[in-house]
Amino acid sequence: MTRALRILAATTLLASFGAIANAAPAQPLARPHRMAISLGFGIGSVAMSSFGTFRDDTVSSLTALNPNVKLSGELGSNFQINGEIGFRYYFPYYVFAHVGFASIYNRSSVDFTLGPVQGSAVYHNLVMEVPIIVGGYVPLAGRLYVYGGVGADVFFFGRSYWDIEGQNIVGGLPDWKTDPGVGFVAVAGADFMLAESVSIGLELRGRYLETSDLVEKDSGIPAQSVLRTQQGYQLDFSGISASIVLRLFAI
């Protein structure tokens, strides 16, 4: 009986080793022919170089309305936040294609005084973008892979909303808009597969995105006649951002 059990155990062990040896190798989780939905949120910087002339324009506009208005400090900031939903397909030969829909928001302001009254001129800057990217990816250690790509950055709905924070200005200040256009985008990142259908990663993105000249969208009554002539600057959302990205893969 004991000898029979030993023979059975040995046979089972040999059969197990044989099955393992003959089994097909496991596919890496980051493999081709997969579609992923991406959800990303990030922070970064924007150039807003020509937008810096808003400081001088605001000085001219407000002092034209009231010579007692004085502005202090530099126009800031260059900080931006962004969010994106995207669709990515992984082809053979370690190639991927990505199309996304994203928004970028920047809030700039400059302080002013009007006699005893202090406040801030605030600019809410917004643009929508559709990045179209082609790149490559390399699986590492099964669950980790890195990638990089370049492409066109189609943008639209460029807006700049002006406001005087803390003050009730009759009619408000003007709002501005820009025409759609095309910029450039480059990405590099790394994703870690948490499971067969979920990954999380970090992505760095550089973009060149400078809009056309701002044109008046809605007039603000007090500053209308002055600010209407202050065109010739753009919203420049060029810069670098870092995002946390969650991807949901189709099995």
Q: What is the count of structural domains?
A: 1
Architecture (CATH level 2) name: Beta Barrel
The CATH class assignment is Mainly Beta
Count all strands and give the number. 11
Structural class by helix and strand composition:
alpha+beta
Amino-to-carboxy terminus distance? 49 Å
The Rg value, from CA coordinates, equals 28 Å
The amount of helix comes to: 10-25%
From the spread of the alpha carbons, the general shape counts as elongated
Which series of helices and strands comes N to C? Answer: HEHEEEEEEEEEHE
How many separate helices? 3
Content of β-strand: over 45%
Description of the structure:
There is one protein chain. The chain is an alpha+beta fold and 251 residues long. The protein has a single domain, classed as Beta Barrel (Porin). Helix content is 15%, strand content 57%. The chain has helices at residues 2-22, 53-65, 224-227; strands at residues 34-45, 69-76, 79-91, 95-114, 117-140, 144-165, 175-177, 181-195, 198-208, 215-218, 239-249. An eight-stranded antiparallel barrel has the order 1-3-4-5-6-8-9-11. Residues 4-26 and 221-230 have low confidence and may be disordered.
